[in-house]
């Protein structure tokens, strides 16, 4: 009996050990190979770790009053590190990931460009890892030199240089890629092309800014954004727009150059910009079928153009004499005539149409004319995920009577209260006080940054919750541009931002932004995490998204409650961020809790060595 008992005891630890090994293997397979996805050893899907600690939620607010940021106590659990994503994800754009579309077997209409629209991963498929820089990555070349040359290692794609070699888009030059300023329709340089457009419109001195009255431009199908890059010297700012299509990385090149740009497509959803935002829309060989679906894409441009706004169109349909181009030109001319557009000028290979100043032409159209006017209940400023409609957006009564926007010329419009403040029931006094407050705050930020930042270190800036755009307005004297982001579910203040002569986009920070990794030098997050707390979304996901967007050696300024600042500080090591300073913010009479300011800098690190590289 003793022998049998001893044998049983000796086998039991072995059995238990085997069971434990099997369990550990199953757990490893679950976390590193979710949904049967191959090759996931360098990253994790989802936010399992964050949800296990109560930091995130799949379904938004669950009614609990407990903050996702906890109490801010030092004893709260914090991660030691994040895994590094696979090298093949170094250019990951989570909501524009074609691999995700294939994996989820989404049924999309390719003819309508739905595969280039946003399709965000569900929580269980989100990457919970740090996006690595490509091998050989260097600190980007500084503006204004960057307009004309970038490091090839930072965007190691040269197919456009070969494909567009006859059009002067870009040229390989050893370790660098140069941009001669050409485009599909302006081989000899964007500057001459821009001057020609101004000449066609009889603008003084052939200056495209029209004495400050033309300030914001939408460039559709922008390529590497040389058109937008050369507009900047005329004090004109363009939202350069292109999808992540066969010309991959064109928007990434634009942002690496320091030129404002956004990943987007004219597909089925409205672009994330409010109505009457742009004085000029531009399309140079943008390969868009403007006649499809009763002209719905041209009507989207119409929604976005201001009264008296222009559409400059350089394409074979405007000049070619073959049968197909003549047919398209005839049908397009008939469509824009029914939309009450008129030809401002047609010369050589370019036609420029102008939009009416008021509703008079719309009222004179025969009953039943298509496209119809949009229904009175339609909100032209509601854009996030809203389908386009094949209808004309008429002007509000006040704008119709004024026969225009009533905006001051640039640069006065930056600080002049715009008429559309009345839409939000905001007074001019409130607007002016907001402008003054942010001027003081930005001066304070720069004094805090001063010892750590060189004058040319910052070019691309994102204000993650821009309100009226006063943060960006305070930076007017600096050689920077700002992507002003306005929450999709808040007041529609983005139209005020555009009326100030600035640019931006609507967005939902529970999702990833439509940009490539490593595209912004500075992120400003004022109360963004507090808003996230109210919605119950994952703060960890947002920190990883900020890290994805931020360039190595770039900065983030977080202005929020003390509990949130303490929460973020616990992640600095895991994110390879260093704290530059943490200070109390000046008192805010509108907030019950005093705010704090945390300024961080992202380190330049190499994934293969797990080490940091000097940023000098």
From TrEMBL:
Superkingdom of the organism of origin: Eukaryota
This protein's UniProt keywords: Glycoprotein, Membrane, Methyltransferase, Signal-anchor, Transferase, Transmembrane, Transmembrane helix
Any one GO CC term of the record: cytoplasm
Pfam family, one: Methyltransf_29
GO molecular function: methyltransferase activity
GO BP terms: methylation
Topology in membrane: Single-pass type II membrane protein
Similarity field: Belongs to the methyltransferase superfamily.
Descriptive protein name: Methyltransferase
Organism listed in the record: Sorghum bicolor (Sorghum)
Record lineage: Eukaryota, Viridiplantae, Streptophyta, Embryophyta, Tracheophyta
């Amino acid at each position: 009996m003793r022998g049998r008992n001893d044998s049983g005891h000796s086998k039991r630890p072995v059995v238990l050990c085997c069971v434990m090994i099997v369990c550990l293997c199953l757990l490893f397979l679950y976390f590193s190979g979710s949904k049967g996805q191959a090759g996931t050893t360098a990253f994790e899907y989802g936010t399992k770790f964050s949800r296990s600690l109560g930091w995130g939620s799949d379904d938004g607010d669950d009614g609990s009053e407990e903050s996702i940021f906890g109490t801010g106590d030092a004893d709260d659990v914090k991660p030691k590190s994040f895994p590094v994503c696979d090298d093949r994800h170094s250019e990951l754009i989570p909501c524009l990931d074609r691999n995700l579309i294939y994996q989820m077997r989404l049924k999309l209409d390719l003819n309508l460009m739905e595969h280039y629209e946003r399709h965000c991963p569900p929580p269980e498929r989100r990457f919970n890892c740090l996006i690595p820089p490509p091998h050989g990555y260097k600190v980007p070349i500084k503006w204004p030199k960057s307009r004309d040359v970038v490091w090839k290692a930072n965007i190691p794609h040269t197919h456009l240089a070969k494909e567009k070699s006859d059009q002067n888009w870009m040229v390989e030059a050893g370790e660098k890629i140069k941009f001669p300023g050409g485009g599909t329709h302006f081989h000899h340089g964007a500057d001459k092309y821009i001057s020609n457009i101004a000449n066609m419109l009889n603008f003084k001195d052939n200056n495209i800014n029209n004495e400050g009255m033309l300030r914001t431009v939408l460039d559709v199908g922008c390529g590497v954004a040389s058109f937008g890059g050369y507009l900047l010297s005329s004090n004109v700012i363009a939202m350069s727009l292109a999808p992540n299509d066969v010309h991959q990385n064109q928007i990434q090149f634009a942002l690496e150059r320091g030129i404002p740009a956004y990943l987007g497509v004219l597909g089925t959803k409205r672009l994330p910009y409010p109505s009457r935002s742009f004085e000029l829309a531009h399309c140079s060989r943008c390969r868009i079928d403007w006649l499809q679906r009763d002209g719905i894409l041209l009507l989207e441009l119409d929604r976005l153009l201001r009264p008296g706004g222009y559409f400059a169109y350089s394409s074979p349909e405007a000049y070619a004499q073959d049968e197909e181009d003549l047919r398209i030109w005839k049908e397009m001319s008939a469509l824009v005539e029914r939309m009450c557009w008129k030809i401002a000028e047609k010369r050589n290979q370019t036609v420029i149409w102008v939009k009416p100043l008021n509703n008079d032409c719309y009222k004179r159209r025969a009953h039943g004319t298509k496209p119809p006017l949009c229904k009175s209940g339609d909100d032209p400023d509601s854009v996030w995920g809203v389908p386009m409609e094949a209808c004309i957006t008429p002007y509000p009564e006040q704008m119709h009577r004024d026969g225009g926007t009533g905006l001051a010329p640039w640069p006065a419009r930056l600080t002049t209260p715009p008429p559309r403040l009345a839409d939000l029931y905001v007074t001019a006094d409130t607007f002016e006080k907001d402008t003054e407050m942010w001027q003081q705050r930005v001066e304070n930020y720069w004094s805090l940054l001063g010892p750590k930042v060189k004058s040319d270190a910052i070019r691309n800036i994102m204000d993650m919750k821009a309100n009226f755009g006063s943060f960006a307005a305070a930076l007017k004297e600096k050689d920077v541009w700002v992507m002003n982001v306005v929450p999709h579910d808040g007041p529609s203040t983005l139209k005020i931002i555009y009326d100030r002569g600035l640019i931006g986009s609507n967005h939902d920070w529970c999702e990833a932004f439509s940009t490539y990794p490593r595209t912004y030098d500075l992120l400003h997050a004022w109360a963004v995490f507090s808003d996230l707390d109210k919605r119950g979304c994952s703060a960890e996901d947002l920190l990883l998204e900020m890290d994805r967007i931020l360039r190595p050696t770039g900065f983030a300024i977080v202005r929020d409650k003390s509990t949130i600042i303490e929460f973020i500080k616990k992640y600095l090591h895991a994110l390879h961020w260093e704290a530059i300073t943490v200070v109390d913010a000046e008192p805010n009479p509108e907030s019950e809790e005093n705010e704090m300011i945390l300024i961080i800098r992202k380190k330049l690190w190499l994934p293969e060595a797990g080490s940091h590289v000097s940023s000098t």
